[in-house]
Amino acid sequence: MKLLFTSGTARGGTNFRTLMLNSHPLLRMSLDPFIPLFRNYRDSLFRANGDADVLASMSSPVLDDYYFSSTKIKAMKAIQSADPDIPFDQSVWPELKNSIASRMKLASMDLIEHLDHLPAPTFREVFQNTMKVISQTREGELAWVGFNDNWAMEFFPLIAQLIPDAKFILNLRDPRAVVYSSEYAEPDPAKRPTVVSFARHLRKYFAYSQMLPKLSPLAERLMITRYEPFVADPESELRAICEFLSVDYISEMTDVSRFRKADGSQWPSDWSIYQSSTDIWRKEMPRDMAELTEFVCDPEMQLQGYVPEIYDRKKGLSSEAFNYAVDNCITCLGWRTDFQEIERTLGSEMFRKRLIAEGTEIGIDEIERNFLFETVYQRVRQLAH
Question: Across residues 161-172, what is the average pLDDT?
């Protein structure tokens, strides 16, 4: 039995892909169970490194996008390069258990009764124990046990070091469809982030899609999927994943009527909903919202084949999209990782655009603040020119 760790963002079509995998008799997947554990892991890394300033900068309830801040870039690097085999502070377990259980109530409530299998002296053992927690909920022999935890993709390299036979899948989706879903499918306005913040997180995922495959701990162990091909030709995409996991493809994986919630009841699924979801943003998304999303995510979104259809790089952000961005940043009730000051938020984005357009020679610090990775900076300059 091996660990399969997948990640994407909220509204990124990750449930759809995870439930397909869970329909295989040799796979057991859970939905978004351990994000509080990853936060605890992150904070423990910073404390072990003595990075109090980095820890203080991580104030958002979600993991950060890291753009436009030297301190947050330091945090990103700490997560990628820190010693992964650090002690797990078992004194915090009662509080952490309650936090994990609260998160699990959303989609993985069947795991809650098995949580006491999780604690161990080191995080290596803790993450190995996640397999025990999940496997307790399905009888029979299993080849892979795993979970999708959105927002946790930057932990792939660390978990790859902790568990040498684990494998990883990065799940992507058209950023316009993700932002549209966030704004119109989420009923609670307090859970809708600013469009700029969400788009920055999506841009980060496209940037990481270029960096992660080049890391030696993830060589031959990482697969990148896109939501739209899964909807268009699920059998082909699932056959590729099954080959990646060395298990046989079975046709039942594409039967959405087999999707089940953690309590065993049927997941509300319909192929017509999935099929319409890939292009619904073109029909219903306000033009200024779509343009703002493209403005933030371009050109990194092109690294995975998503092409701007409204934002014009030569003309720049339209007055309508600019005014929408100002209003959204001021009135949004949800979480944010952009700046509270709208002029800093949009000014940073516009400075980034000029760097791409002008091809200005800048130092590595400026490159990382604006593009996270030098390889991404070089690629987006090629795309722009």
Answer: 95
